[in-house]
Amino acid sequence: MSSPQLDLDSFLPYRLSVLSNRISQSIARLYAERFGISITEWRVIAVLGRYSGLSANQVAERTAMDKVAVSRALARLVERGLIVRSTDDDDRRRSVLALSASGKRIHTQIAPLALEMEHKLLAGFDKEERRLLDRLLGKLSESQQRL
């Protein structure tokens, strides 16, 4: 008995991964050219721009990125002065991260560019298609969490 063939062109995880990588690479070029940061660094900045005071592990959880990649990105961002690391007042063993003034400026400049890219990506969708896409992505996320 032969095993089933995996058709990558119709295999959802593969298609989502390729699409995500292509979108991320397009955006990454923009961030690298204008701000000298990688996509991983932008994701860290974006998360800390929204949720200040997280630990490195919490940043990794929120971005669903590898802890080593997040740690390296954090080290580069701290070195560049875009992120500050301090000690948690309640738990002196825990360090917390926040954007510095320079990090906040970059976040403020990049956020509109990211939103513009999203707008361009969704330009061919009408309002109902956008709502449907949002619902479907939410369902996929829920399904993934049950795996």
Give an account of the 3D structure.
With 147 residues, this protein is mainly α. It has one domain: Arc Repressor Mutant, subunit A. Helix content is 67%, strand content 7%. The protein contains 6 helices and 2 strands. Strands 1-2 form a two-stranded antiparallel sheet. It is globular. The two termini are 28 Å apart. The relative contact order is 0.10.
Summarize the structure.
The protein has 147 residues and is mainly alpha-helical.
CATH-defined topology: Arc Repressor Mutant, subunit A
Strand content: 5-15%
The amount of helix comes to 55-70%
Oligomer: single chain
Using the 3D structure, state the CATH architecture.
Answer: Orthogonal Bundle
Total discrete domains: 1
- What is the makeup of the main sheet? 2 strands, antiparallel
Low-confidence stretches: none
> What spatial form do the alpha-carbon principal axes imply?
globular
The counted number of beta strands is: 2
Q: What's the CATH class, please?
A: Mainly Alpha
The fourth-level CATH homologous superfamily is: Winged helix-like DNA-binding domain superfamily/Winged helix DNA-binding domain
| Secondary structure category | mainly alpha
Secondary-structure element string: HHHHEEHH
Widest sheet: strand ordering: 1-2
- Our count of helices gives 6
Cα separation of the termini:
28 Å
Q: Over the alpha carbons, how many angstroms does the gyration radius reach?
A: 18 Å
* Average residue-wise pLDDT: 91
